[in-house]
Amino acid sequence: MPRLTFIASQGTPRTVDARSGDSAMQTALAHGIDGITAECGGAMACATCHVYVADEWTDRVGPSGEMEADMLEFAACEVTPTSRLSCQIKMTEALDGLVLYLPEAQV
Amino acid sequence: MPLAPVNDAVTITELIDNPYPFYRQMRANSPVVSVSAVNRVMLTKAADTRAVKDDPETWSSDDPDTPMKRAFHAHTLMRKDGEEHLRERNAMMPTFSPRNLKTLWGPAYEKLAGDYLDRLPKGEVVDLFPTLAGPLAARILADILGLSEASDDDMQFWSQALIDGAGNFGWFDEPFERVDRAHLAMDALMERKAEFYRANPDQTALSVMVNADDPIAWSQIVANIKIAIGGGINEPRDALLTVLYGLLTNPDQLDEIKRTGQWGSAFEEAIRWVAPIQVSSRRATRDTQIRGIDIPAGTVVMTCQASSNHDEDLFEDGHLFNAFRARNPHQSFGSGPHHCMGTHLARMMLGKIMLPMIFDRFPNMELVQPETVVWKGFGFRGPLNLPVRLN
């Protein structure tokens, strides 16, 4: 079971267990992580599950896809090269220990 | 397990006048309830409405027994699932891209909003429903869809005819006859404009769909433009009237927002407080259960986001307008694959452009006799009038 750490914008970290195959967004919702709104439920129709991937993880997580990058333009907070929609990050054993930073706001 | 308990006490008239007391009772006592007045199993808790919309495999959007197909002369993307839905939705998506919002529709709306505000008389009582909220929503939608030739009145008439037809659960003749007349006019305009856009492509919805590399069928292009007409006027109209009412009846909040510029929060709170689209429906594709209640395959449930938005589990004093809620996970744009396509457009138009503009121009706007404002609607809800004095 891969572990996943969310770090809130004020700096508070929270580590949770993810089910392999779930997205990081689904993992956040399942554990009631506050900083993920996920309005569209993973249909890639909004940008309210925006996260910043920790620098040391960006290679393994990979960059956003084309549609995702478009959608990220709707994000409420600044989009950086490490920005991803967490609904598009699929949790696998290879991502065990992943660290995601949450933006200040999603809407 | 038991089937949903039946409530045959509440009437459709009560639900149209004010459904919120009924929803509050149901959330407390009977959150999954079969309501005879609407012939549907209502879901009234936020966790349930969200779970249903996020699980399209169990919950199909295809509700076969509604007047919508008759009213729209077609099966529209609203009632489709999976790949079929996605293909039709994606056909229109480019129009609503972030770039188009930023470079085309935002500036267009700003210009229109300024023009419509310029026309409003100062110092006397004016109703903002027919003079601003309705026509402005109609105008920007016509321009974005690629139907600039349609007048504000045309758009509003077509939209209302489609809504009344789709909601004609009594299967009366008049609403269908009225929407049939609207179809004649809409079809003629769309055919003419499609011809034009084939030679002069732009970013409007009609043009984007007609000129796609692998276009969807013409019948679906037409049907989905009509969905946008039926669904794209009343929501921004009602949201604007609702947020203005919320702010004008809570002057402390208005003052604070003028100071901080949190207009977006005021917009989100307004659509939470009174969701312009109050309910949706989904059909169970298999036997399932919600909160220990059996839902047999084929059951059509009504997800009452209006109720979810007041759910005590998520919101304190949900019946009150409070633009400063720390969290506001409302469901007014829906969720899942059918998440509202106009979400970002609405947030931009109202939260970023209209609200700061209208209060900048009329800083002392006052609501005249707030008690005369009439709220109505079960499926769609908003104020029917908003008398203000602009100063």
Describe this structure in words.
- The complex is a heterodimer of chains A (107) and B (391).
- Chain A contains three helices and five strands, in the order ββαβααββ.
- Chain A has 107 residues and is of the alpha+beta class.
- Chain A has a single domain (3-101), classed as Ubiquitin-like (UB roll) (Roll).
- In chain A, strands 2-1-5-3-4 form a five-stranded mixed sheet.
- In chain A, a hairpin with a 5-residue loop joins strand 1 (3-7) and strand 2.
- The N and C termini of chain A lie far apart (31 Å).
- The mean pLDDT of chain A is 94.
- Chain B has 391 residues and is α+β, with helices and mostly antiparallel strands.
Q: Which key features would you list for this structure?
A:
heterodimer; A: 107 residues; Ubiquitin-like (UB roll); 5 strands; B: 391 residues; alpha+beta; 3-stranded antiparallel sheet; globular
